[in-house]
Amino acid sequence: MIVLIAPENDIPNEIEILNQLFQEGLDYYHLRKPNKSYKDHCEYLYQIDKKYHNKIVVHYFHELVNEFDLKGIHFQEQKRRDHIDNPGHYFKELSMFGKTISSSFHEPEELECCEFEFDYHLLSPVFDSISKKGYEGKRFNVGHIDKLIVGMGGINAETIPETFQLGFKGIGVLGGIWNTEDPVKSFVALNDMYNSVKN
């Protein structure tokens, strides 16, 4: 699986590019916009072709799953620590049938010990981050952990083979797509490399 994280701040033609990425086979788009309000999130989603809503996972305002036919919800690290000990209470108000639940981790030990069954887990930073300067990669080896773990941080077409060697089952990308001259072309190259390594 390839997870694409939204650019934190809007970029020119973002929605147009995003619709093209979905056309090229993007299945997991993590809508992570910390500066947007609930209303802003709704306006953003309304601009995206409705048929692609079921490929979108929201990081903020999880109640958006009640309004839109989304793929699922994601817990940032702190939110997971705050709420997941009593998940029954948290999910009571959410229409979660058939939706994915994922979370971010920065230490393999915490991920391994987490008792809540997430559908997949984002672990970072694997390599030096492209989008966050000074965020140094730790080359975690997760082959021994029997969970679906997606490697994040410094992922691009060149680093995919090593990501799989380290035991990751998927890749998460942000700067490797959005910080390139042609995000769609970069995604196609990334997708091709991913499929050739995976097979």
Q: Could you characterize the architecture of this molecule?
A:
The chain has 199 residues and is α/β, with parallel strands linked by helices. Helices cover 32% and strands 16% of the residues. The chain has an eight-stranded parallel β-barrel.
Describe this structure in a few short sentences.
The chain is 32% helix and 16% strand. By secondary structure, it is an alpha/beta fold.
At the fold tier of CATH, the topology name is TIM Barrel
Mean pLDDT: 94
Q: Span from first to last CA?
A: 13 Å
Radius of gyration: 16 Å
> Strands of the largest sheet, in order across it?
1-2-3-4-5-6-7-8
Structural class based on helices, strands and sheet pairing: alpha/beta
What is the helix tally? 8
* The top level CATH class name: Alpha Beta
Sheet of most strands: 8 strands, parallel, barrel
Low-confidence stretches: none
Task: Indicate the CATH architecture.
Answer: Alpha-Beta Barrel
Count the domains. 1
The CATH H-level superfamily is Aldolase class I
User: Strand percentage, roughly?
Assistant: 15-25%
Residue share in helices? 25-40%
Name the helix and strand elements from N-terminus to C-terminus, one letter apiece.
EHEHEEHHEHEEHEHH
> How many strands appear in the DSSP assignment?
8
Coarse morphology = globular
Could you name the key traits of this structure?
single chain; 199 residues; alpha/beta; TIM Barrel; eight-stranded parallel β-barrel; 32% helix; globular
